[in-house]
Fold ABC transporter.
Amino acid sequence: MPTTALDARGLTKRYDDVVALDAVDLRVAAGSVHGLLGPNGAGKTTLLRVLLGLTHPDAGAVHVFDRPMSDSRGRLHPDVAGFAEAPRFYPFLTGRRNLELLAAYDQDDGTGRVEAVLDRLGLTARAGSRVAGYSLGMRQRLGVAAALVRRPRLLILDEPANGLDPAGIRDLRELLRELAADGGTVLLSSHQMAEVEALCDEVTILGSGTVVYDGSLQRLRETAPAPEYRLRTVDDEVALALAEDELAVAAGDGLTVRAPAEALDAYVAKLVAEGIGIRELHQSVSPLERMFFTLTEAGGAR
Ligand SMILES: Nc1ncnc2c1ncn2[C@@H]1O[C@H](COP(=O)(O)OP(=O)(O)OP(=O)(O)O)[C@@H](O)[C@H]1O
């Protein structure tokens, strides 16, 4: 059993003078939920499109479970399924009919799995309605359902939580964790660190078409800067004057404090001792988010 589900090397993709991917390497361990992170325009969708065989790279190669990703006739590896950008369906057919058509088209006819998959994604009650009337969240769930009909060993999802309500996000996380616990592998993209943090152990961060970080979230956490807090007091001007070593800066209506927990505690104790009441204090940017911004802001969005 291979330990590597996906091995992409040196992927480069240009659109005229835009280099969407510049010699990108990506390795996804079998049985993991791997996050692909990056700000808008970093190249996530382009990379997933390449991995799903929807576009050809200008250079590089992709292997899935030790075999080339697509065969000589351009057919996708039978163990891979997913979507890049948004999942697409025939709008005037029902959700169920869309899945049946996709299943029948597959080499390994998955029609018999359609009902179970609809049920798994909570779509049974609306499976007989036309997709044209589906909400964004329902389409996303139908997209995941369509991928699961293939029973893929590697599931590739582009911003799967997009459009889902909190309950939908919770259910999706549970589903992806279950798939990984059963030995499946998931590669998902996101532009939100918090989402990736909730699901993934390993992460690849793209910035302007190149890999700016690849490794465990744990290692990233260890090197991450102090978190950022939002602070409002009864007198922000005095509070700012009491801050040492540029611990706090003015930020519109309130202050931004960048400090490790001990320094924050000492600052708050000092404010209270000076009679400066605290009106609001919460973490506004986590250490991992700050790390993400630091890593990706050099290139910026394009
Ligand atoms: N079909 C295309 N034609 C021209 N340029 C493209 C095309 N697809 C992507 N690009 C460019 O390639 C770069 C990477 O885009 P991509 O959509 O892969 O980024 P992304 O990380 O998925 O962004 P987002 O989070 O906004 O979806 C961008 O500069 C984009 O404008």
Summary: Residues 228-285 form one domain. The chain has two domains: 4-223, 228-285. The mean pLDDT is 91. The first helix runs from residue 44 to 51.
